[in-house]
Amino acid sequence: MAGEFDASAYGRSIADIYDTTTDALPTDSAVDRLHDLADGGPVLEFGIGTGRLALPLAARGLAVAGIDGSAEMVLVLRTKAGGDRVPVTLGDFATTRVEGEFALVVLAVNTIFALPSQEAQVSCFRNAAAHLRPGGRFVVEAWVPDLGAFRNGSALRLLSLGEDAVVAEAARLSAADQMMYTTRIRMTDAGLRLLPANHRYAWPAELDLMARLAGMEREHRWSDWTGAAFTDDSRAHVSVYRI
Ligand SMILES: C[S@@+](CC[C@H](N)C(=O)[O-])C[C@H]1O[C@@H](n2cnc3c(N)ncnc32)[C@H](O)[C@@H]1O
Predict the structure, then answer these.
(1) Residues 40-83: pLDDT tens digits?
(2) In terms of domains, do 92 and 212 share one?
(3) Which stretches of 108-235 are assigned E, i.e. beta strand?
(4) Which of 46, 68, 121 to mutate to test the pocket of ligand 1 (most atoms within 8 A of CB)?
(5) Label partner for 91 (CA 20 to 30 A): which of 64, 126, 151, 169?
(6) Residue ranges of the Methyltransferase domain (predicted)?
Protein backbone atom coordinates (compact mmCIF):
# COMPACT_ATOMS: atom_id res chain seq x y z
CA MET A 1 0.00 0.00 0.00
CA ALA A 2 2.84 2.42 0.78
CA GLY A 3 4.66 2.33 -2.60
CA GLU A 4 6.43 5.20 -4.34
CA PHE A 5 4.58 8.52 -4.51
CA ASP A 6 3.34 9.29 -8.02
CA ALA A 7 1.91 12.79 -8.60
CA SER A 8 0.31 11.61 -11.85
CA ALA A 9 -1.62 8.64 -10.45
CA TYR A 10 -4.84 10.32 -9.28
CA GLY A 11 -5.40 12.20 -12.52
CA ARG A 12 -4.60 9.17 -14.65
CA SER A 13 -7.29 7.14 -12.88
CA ILE A 14 -10.05 9.75 -13.11
CA ALA A 15 -9.37 12.25 -15.93
CA ASP A 16 -11.98 10.91 -18.38
CA ILE A 17 -14.83 11.27 -15.85
CA TYR A 18 -13.49 13.94 -13.45
CA ASP A 19 -15.83 16.61 -14.77
CA THR A 20 -18.86 14.40 -14.08
CA THR A 21 -17.85 14.21 -10.40
CA THR A 22 -17.73 17.93 -9.60
CA ASP A 23 -21.41 18.95 -9.71
CA ALA A 24 -21.63 19.10 -5.93
CA LEU A 25 -18.53 21.29 -5.56
CA PRO A 26 -19.16 24.98 -4.80
CA THR A 27 -17.50 26.25 -7.97
CA ASP A 28 -19.29 29.61 -8.28
CA SER A 29 -18.58 30.73 -4.72
CA ALA A 30 -14.97 29.53 -4.99
CA VAL A 31 -14.42 31.51 -8.17
CA ASP A 32 -16.01 34.63 -6.64
CA ARG A 33 -13.82 34.39 -3.55
CA LEU A 34 -10.61 33.64 -5.49
CA HIS A 35 -11.32 36.53 -7.83
CA ASP A 36 -11.61 38.87 -4.82
CA LEU A 37 -8.48 37.50 -3.14
CA ALA A 38 -6.38 37.86 -6.31
CA ASP A 39 -7.26 41.56 -6.40
CA GLY A 40 -6.53 41.73 -10.14
CA GLY A 41 -3.14 40.01 -9.86
CA PRO A 42 -1.85 36.81 -11.45
CA VAL A 43 -2.97 33.44 -10.10
CA LEU A 44 -1.13 30.12 -9.94
CA GLU A 45 -3.20 27.00 -9.29
CA PHE A 46 -1.49 23.93 -7.83
CA GLY A 47 -3.33 20.87 -9.19
CA ILE A 48 -5.12 22.87 -11.89
CA GLY A 49 -6.72 19.70 -13.23
CA THR A 50 -9.33 20.18 -15.94
CA GLY A 51 -9.66 23.90 -15.21
CA ARG A 52 -12.85 23.94 -13.11
CA LEU A 53 -11.59 27.04 -11.25
CA ALA A 54 -8.85 28.28 -13.58
CA LEU A 55 -11.00 28.75 -16.68
CA PRO A 56 -13.71 30.91 -15.07
CA LEU A 57 -10.98 32.97 -13.35
CA ALA A 58 -9.24 33.49 -16.70
CA ALA A 59 -12.60 34.36 -18.29
CA ARG A 60 -12.92 37.15 -15.72
CA GLY A 61 -9.68 38.65 -16.97
CA LEU A 62 -7.12 37.27 -14.52
CA ALA A 63 -3.80 35.84 -15.73
CA VAL A 64 -3.92 32.20 -14.59
CA ALA A 65 -1.21 29.53 -14.74
CA GLY A 66 -1.11 26.03 -13.32
CA ILE A 67 0.94 23.06 -12.22
CA ASP A 68 -0.39 19.52 -12.44
CA GLY A 69 1.06 16.04 -12.18
CA SER A 70 -1.32 14.51 -14.67
CA ALA A 71 -0.98 14.94 -18.44
CA GLU A 72 -4.42 13.30 -18.78
CA MET A 73 -6.15 15.99 -16.68
CA VAL A 74 -4.38 18.75 -18.61
CA LEU A 75 -5.44 17.19 -21.94
CA VAL A 76 -9.08 17.60 -20.83
CA LEU A 77 -8.37 21.23 -19.90
CA ARG A 78 -6.94 21.77 -23.40
CA THR A 79 -10.22 20.67 -25.04
CA LYS A 80 -12.22 23.44 -23.33
CA ALA A 81 -12.84 27.01 -24.47
CA GLY A 82 -9.83 29.07 -23.40
CA GLY A 83 -7.99 25.93 -22.21
CA ASP A 84 -5.25 26.33 -24.80
CA ARG A 85 -4.32 29.76 -23.40
CA VAL A 86 -3.60 28.69 -19.80
CA PRO A 87 0.10 27.89 -19.28
CA VAL A 88 0.45 24.60 -17.41
CA THR A 89 3.66 23.00 -16.17
CA LEU A 90 3.63 19.24 -15.63
CA GLY A 91 5.15 18.25 -12.30
CA ASP A 92 4.70 17.79 -8.56
CA PHE A 93 3.40 21.01 -6.98
CA ALA A 94 5.44 20.32 -3.85
CA THR A 95 8.63 21.08 -5.76
CA THR A 96 7.94 22.33 -9.30
CA ARG A 97 8.81 25.99 -9.97
CA VAL A 98 7.29 28.16 -12.69
CA GLU A 99 8.26 31.59 -13.99
CA GLY A 100 6.70 34.63 -12.39
CA GLU A 101 5.49 36.18 -9.14
CA PHE A 102 1.86 35.64 -8.24
CA ALA A 103 -0.73 37.49 -6.17
CA LEU A 104 -2.47 34.23 -5.35
CA VAL A 105 -1.55 30.54 -5.21
CA VAL A 106 -4.55 28.19 -4.91
CA LEU A 107 -4.74 24.57 -3.77
CA ALA A 108 -8.36 23.37 -3.75
CA VAL A 109 -10.43 20.26 -3.00
CA ASN A 110 -8.27 18.62 -0.30
CA THR A 111 -5.43 18.13 -2.75
CA ILE A 112 -2.88 19.16 -0.09
CA PHE A 113 -3.63 15.74 1.47
CA ALA A 114 -2.64 13.98 -1.75
CA LEU A 115 0.95 14.69 -0.76
CA PRO A 116 2.01 11.59 1.15
CA SER A 117 3.95 13.01 4.12
CA GLN A 118 4.31 16.00 6.40
CA GLU A 119 7.64 16.71 4.73
CA ALA A 120 6.03 16.88 1.27
CA GLN A 121 3.24 19.12 2.57
CA VAL A 122 5.73 21.50 4.20
CA SER A 123 7.61 21.55 0.90
CA CYS A 124 4.34 22.48 -0.85
CA PHE A 125 3.79 25.45 1.50
CA ARG A 126 7.38 26.57 0.89
CA ASN A 127 6.86 26.21 -2.85
CA ALA A 128 3.69 28.30 -2.68
CA ALA A 129 5.51 31.01 -0.69
CA ALA A 130 8.36 31.03 -3.23
CA HIS A 131 5.86 31.89 -6.00
CA LEU A 132 4.17 34.78 -4.15
CA ARG A 133 4.92 38.44 -4.54
CA PRO A 134 5.13 40.45 -1.27
CA GLY A 135 1.65 40.51 0.30
CA GLY A 136 0.53 37.59 -1.88
CA ARG A 137 -1.79 34.86 -0.63
CA PHE A 138 -1.87 31.07 -0.52
CA VAL A 139 -5.39 29.61 -0.29
CA VAL A 140 -5.95 26.03 0.83
CA GLU A 141 -9.33 24.27 0.76
CA ALA A 142 -9.43 21.06 2.80
CA TRP A 143 -11.65 18.94 4.99
CA VAL A 144 -11.31 18.68 8.74
CA PRO A 145 -10.40 15.06 9.57
CA ASP A 146 -13.41 13.20 10.99
CA LEU A 147 -12.00 10.17 12.73
CA GLY A 148 -15.40 9.56 14.36
CA ALA A 149 -16.66 8.35 10.99
CA PHE A 150 -14.45 5.24 11.33
CA ARG A 151 -15.37 2.13 13.26
CA ASN A 152 -12.54 -0.29 13.97
CA GLY A 153 -10.43 1.64 11.51
CA SER A 154 -12.73 1.43 8.49
CA ALA A 155 -15.72 3.25 7.02
CA LEU A 156 -18.13 2.75 4.16
CA ARG A 157 -20.37 5.64 3.14
CA LEU A 158 -22.72 6.64 0.39
CA LEU A 159 -21.48 9.78 -1.39
CA SER A 160 -24.18 10.25 -4.00
CA LEU A 161 -27.30 8.51 -5.19
CA GLY A 162 -28.61 9.20 -8.66
CA GLU A 163 -30.64 7.36 -11.30
CA ASP A 164 -27.57 7.08 -13.55
CA ALA A 165 -24.84 6.60 -10.96
CA VAL A 166 -24.36 5.63 -7.33
CA VAL A 167 -21.06 6.53 -5.67
CA ALA A 168 -19.85 5.00 -2.40
CA GLU A 169 -16.51 5.25 -0.65
CA ALA A 170 -14.63 2.58 1.30
CA ALA A 171 -11.93 3.93 3.60
CA ARG A 172 -9.35 2.56 5.96
CA LEU A 173 -7.71 4.67 8.63
CA SER A 174 -4.12 4.44 9.80
CA ALA A 175 -4.23 6.98 12.63
CA ALA A 176 -0.60 6.47 13.61
CA ASP A 177 0.50 7.67 10.16
CA GLN A 178 -2.34 10.21 9.69
CA MET A 179 -3.27 8.27 6.55
CA MET A 180 -6.66 7.47 5.05
CA TYR A 181 -6.66 4.95 2.23
CA THR A 182 -9.84 5.41 0.21
CA THR A 183 -11.40 3.89 -2.88
CA ARG A 184 -14.50 5.41 -4.41
CA ILE A 185 -16.80 2.90 -6.07
CA ARG A 186 -18.80 4.37 -8.95
CA MET A 187 -21.65 2.15 -10.06
CA THR A 188 -23.38 2.77 -13.39
CA ASP A 189 -25.15 0.70 -16.07
CA ALA A 190 -21.69 0.32 -17.67
CA GLY A 191 -20.35 -1.42 -14.55
CA LEU A 192 -18.14 -0.62 -11.58
CA ARG A 193 -15.31 1.88 -11.60
CA LEU A 194 -12.80 2.00 -8.73
CA LEU A 195 -11.18 5.37 -7.98
CA PRO A 196 -8.39 5.06 -5.39
CA ALA A 197 -7.08 8.14 -3.55
CA ASN A 198 -4.91 8.15 -0.45
CA HIS A 199 -4.77 11.08 1.94
CA ARG A 200 -2.12 12.12 4.42
CA TYR A 201 -4.57 14.20 6.44
CA ALA A 202 -3.73 17.08 8.76
CA TRP A 203 -5.74 19.24 11.13
CA PRO A 204 -6.03 22.95 10.36
CA ALA A 205 -3.56 23.86 13.11
CA GLU A 206 -0.87 21.69 11.53
CA LEU A 207 -1.42 23.47 8.22
CA ASP A 208 -1.05 26.81 10.05
CA LEU A 209 2.29 25.65 11.38
CA MET A 210 3.40 24.61 7.89
CA ALA A 211 2.51 28.10 6.70
CA ARG A 212 4.65 29.61 9.46
CA LEU A 213 7.58 27.39 8.51
CA ALA A 214 7.20 28.81 5.01
CA GLY A 215 7.16 32.40 6.26
CA MET A 216 3.40 33.00 5.98
CA GLU A 217 0.70 33.95 8.52
CA ARG A 218 -2.95 33.00 8.47
CA GLU A 219 -5.18 35.85 7.35
CA HIS A 220 -8.57 34.05 7.24
CA ARG A 221 -10.16 30.73 8.01
CA TRP A 222 -13.71 30.15 6.82
CA SER A 223 -15.80 27.01 6.73
CA ASP A 224 -16.51 27.51 3.02
CA TRP A 225 -15.88 29.84 0.10
CA THR A 226 -18.78 32.16 1.03
CA GLY A 227 -16.85 33.20 4.13
CA ALA A 228 -19.12 31.43 6.64
CA ALA A 229 -17.60 31.29 10.12
CA PHE A 230 -15.35 28.35 10.97
CA THR A 231 -16.92 26.68 14.03
CA ASP A 232 -16.82 23.52 16.16
CA ASP A 233 -19.15 21.90 13.61
CA SER A 234 -17.22 22.84 10.48
CA ARG A 235 -16.30 19.78 8.43
CA ALA A 236 -14.13 21.72 5.97
CA HIS A 237 -12.14 24.93 5.80
CA VAL A 238 -10.88 27.52 3.39
CA SER A 239 -7.69 28.97 4.85
CA VAL A 240 -5.91 32.02 3.51
CA TYR A 241 -2.21 32.56 4.28
CA ARG A 242 -0.31 35.73 3.53
CA ILE A 243 3.37 36.34 3.02
C1 LIG B 1 -9.20 16.83 -7.08
S2 LIG B 1 -8.37 17.37 -8.53
C3 LIG B 1 -8.70 19.11 -8.44
C4 LIG B 1 -8.61 19.77 -9.79
C5 LIG B 1 -9.00 21.25 -9.80
N6 LIG B 1 -8.12 22.03 -8.93
C7 LIG B 1 -10.42 21.43 -9.34
O8 LIG B 1 -10.63 22.17 -8.37
O9 LIG B 1 -11.33 20.86 -9.95
C10 LIG B 1 -6.66 17.30 -8.00
C11 LIG B 1 -5.67 17.64 -9.10
O12 LIG B 1 -4.37 17.71 -8.51
C13 LIG B 1 -3.46 16.96 -9.29
N14 LIG B 1 -2.41 16.49 -8.36
C15 LIG B 1 -2.56 15.66 -7.31
N16 LIG B 1 -1.40 15.54 -6.65
C17 LIG B 1 -0.50 16.32 -7.30
C18 LIG B 1 0.87 16.64 -7.09
N19 LIG B 1 1.56 16.15 -6.06
N20 LIG B 1 1.46 17.49 -7.95
C21 LIG B 1 0.78 18.00 -9.01
N22 LIG B 1 -0.52 17.75 -9.24
C23 LIG B 1 -1.15 16.92 -8.40
C24 LIG B 1 -4.27 15.87 -9.95
O25 LIG B 1 -3.66 15.41 -11.13
C26 LIG B 1 -5.59 16.60 -10.21
O27 LIG B 1 -5.57 17.25 -11.44
Answers:
(1) 999 999 999 999 999 999 999 999 999 999 999 999 999 999 99
(2) yes
(3) 132-143, 154-161, 165-174, 179-188, 191-200, 217-222
(4) 68
(5) 169
(6) 43-136
